[in-house]
TrEMBL record:
Protein name: Ferric-chelate reductase 1-like
Source species: Triplophysa rosa
Transmembrane segments: 381-402, 423-442, 454-473, 485-507, 519-538, 589-610
Entry cofactors: heme b
GO cellular component: membrane
């Protein structure tokens, strides 16, 4: 029984439950600390934003207009997201009062701390320069209230809890002025990372450390196309090394199976002239969420020749507050890479590399193998290649050019050519049907990222089913309307062949089954040309432009007596049976040569599928 393959994009796009991760502004999970979980530190620069109130004193039920404005000039005089709250100035953990919207198209109310309308956020990620809202003082308010706002300019650049004005109740003295640095409070401390002095090496793979590499056996020290992951046990921790060519990030994940869900993810992401090393977690078929806990130690990185390299140490047994997998258990290893922009990852450039078997990270060193193509999709590609490169072409050639052959031979009461044609076409339909189902089993539904390939595949599947159904209702050979069936059968089959070839060409360039280019494309093209050449030669021969038989004619010798001279004369009469046998032999030779070449192309392509 095939193991249920379940590879998804372990690091497709880093959409997080925060201000930027939700362009719609539904960020209630950030209500308490007002901090986006982007895996980036808040900016320590002075914020280029101001927050003002139209009055500084209030009574119960009073309304105060609060304005958030970008005060810088030029191309950066904007913000994308924000989260505005009113807190008790004496206890900044307590939300006070409620808000009322001025412009619902750019701002919306949130329910924070079980209080309706206690916070305001953005409605989309479009650039904004100013937002106004109205704060309504509650009954029995505290003596003073401070407005706080988190503002996000881009995914990796944001300011947390920018302090706004303090408004006081009538009859209460205002609190003393405060000085802030960088305009952002509650900045989180992080563990600094250092720069690697040299590149990683594959030396010791399988002896002192475990390695997963693509291509197999590559060395990141001298191969800039090498995707490399190594790990080794050091007392109570595991030391990881990760390297690969990428524009934005390289990453790996620990998974209990070959499906996405409850996976422990680690990524090294380029940020201008440095690399951010982060841990993340995937729950279900969703995007990874950056972890706020600091589970990684001894972080180091290097950027060179288009490669991103990073290393870090992680405890084998994580602490209770860290949502990380224990490293003394076996896991499948995923490796992925792709682009990143403003600190946010995009869908990986290639299908992730997945280890062939589970590996216990604390076990003996091992040189691991992996594949970027799931087993189900390998079967899909193999079945479709066999069906539409080999069996269908052989069935077409036999039906077109071998009807006159084997006239005295039958198989189960039917002519040889018909039984061979029907058997090959039945096999084609069965292979197509099985191959058609496999991607849906793997994806769990329709793939939106495969371009035209799945749509054309559906067309091929429909045409493949129509052909035998049409054949079941064909009229008798001597029926007056038999020609209609002949043309429909020929047209549908030809269309199916053409569409299938296009579909196969698109299929070998899909991420989930990416065959080596350009030679795999060339090989597939040669197989198509090979069929066209065989079909052309046989067609020319059938139309009499290549009368091979006349070159092989034998003769029977007769003698006649010529009465006048009483002599014998030898007469040579062509043997028509021998001529027909020569014509048939020629066709058989063409068919045999074609099948040998076709099977050769097919075997190489199947071997390539197995190897990826």
């Amino acid at each position: 029984v095939l193991m249920k393959a379940r590879i998804v994009l372990v690091l497709t796009a880093l959409c997080i439950k925060t201000v930027a991760g939700y362009p719609s502004g539904k960020v209630t999970e950030s209500c308490e600390d007002m901090t986006p979980n982007h895996g980036h530190d808040p900016s320590t620069l002075d914020p280029p934003y101001t927050i003002t109130a139209d009055k500084l004193q209030f009574s119960t039920g009073d309304e105060i207009k609060v304005t958030l404005r970008a005060d810088s000039s030029g191309s950066k005089a904007y913000f994308k997201g924000f989260l505005l709250e009113a807190r008790n100035a004496g206890n900044l953990n307590e939300a006070v009062g409620s808000f009322q919207l001025v412009d619902p198209t750019i701002s919306q109310l949130l329910q924070c701390n079980d209080k309706d309308g206690s916070a305001v956020s953005h409605t989309d990620k479009h650039h904004k320069t100013e937002v106004q809202v109205v704060w309504i003082a509650p009954e029995d308010p505290p003596s003073s209230v401070r407005f706080l706002v988190t503002v996000l300019r881009r995914y990796s650049e944001f300011w947390v809890k920018i302090p706004g004005p303090v408004v006081t109740r009538y009859g209460v003295d205002p609190p003393p002025a405060e000085t802030t640095i960088g305009g952002s409070s509650d900045a989180k401390t992080t563990t600094a990372s250092s720069m690697l002095s040299r590149s990683f090496t594959s030396e010791g793979c399988g002896s002192s450390k475990s390695c997963l590499r693509d291509p197999d056996g590559c060395n990141p020290q001298n191969d800039t196309s090498c995707h490399f992951l190594s790990f080794r046990k050091e007392e109570t921790s595991i030391m990881f090394e990760l390297s690969g060519p990428a524009e934005g990030y390289v990453s790996f994940a620990l998974s209990l199976d070959k499906w996405m869900g409850n996976d422990d993810v680690y990524l090294c992401m380029r940020a201008t002239n440095r690399v951010d090393i982060k841990a993340a977690f995937v729950s279900g078929r969703t995007h990874p969420e950056i972890s706020s806990e600091n589970a990684l130690k001894d972080k180091a990185w290097r950027l060179s020749d288009g490669m991103i390299q990073c290393s870090f140490r992680r405890d084998i047994i994580p602490s209770d507050n860290q949502k990380r997998f224990p490293l003394d258990q076996p896991y499948y290893l995923f490796m992925a890479h792709g682009r990143a922009e403003d600190g946010q990852t995009h869908r990986h450039d290639r299908q992730p590399l997945i280890s062939s078997n589970q590996k216990e990270l604390t076990g003996d060193p091992e040189d691991l193998t992996g594949s970027r193509s799931p087993l189900l999709l390998k079967y899909h590609g193999a079945f479709m290649l066999i069906a539409w490169i080999s069996t269908v072409s052989a069935g077409v050639i036999i039906a077109r050019y071998f009807k006159p052959d084997w006239p005295e031979s039958n198989i189960l009461g039917q002519k040889v050519w018909f039984q061979l044609h029907r058997g090959l076409m039945t096999l084609t339909v069965l292979l197509t049907l099985v191959g058609f189902v496999l991607p849906f089993m793997y994806r769990g539904g329709w793939s939106k990222r495969a371009g035209l390939h799945p749509y054309l595949g559906c067309v091929v599947m429909a045409l493949a089913v129509i052909q035998p159904v049409m054949a079941l209702f064909r009229p008798a050979p001597d029926a007056s309307r038999r020609y209609i069936f002949n043309w429909m059968h020929f047209g549908t089959g030809t269309l199916a062949q053409i569409v299938s070839v296009i579909t196969v060409f698109l299929g070998i360039h899909q991420q989930a089954l990416l065959l080596p280019a350009p030679w795999s494309t060339g090989l597939l093209g040669f197989s198509v040309v090979w069929f066209v050449l065989a079909d052309l030669v046989l067609e020319v021969h059938r139309r009499g432009f290549l009368p091979i038989g006349k070159y092989f004619k034998n003769v029977k010798i007769y003698t006649e007596h010529i009465n006048s001279e009483d002599k014998e004369i030898i007469m040579f009469v062509p043997d028509e049976n021998e001529s027909l046998r020569a014509e048939s032999c020629f066709k058989n030779i063409i068919l045999a040569v074609y099948l040998c070449g076709n099977l050769g192309f097919l075997m190489v392509l199947l071997w390539t599928i197995i190897s990826v």
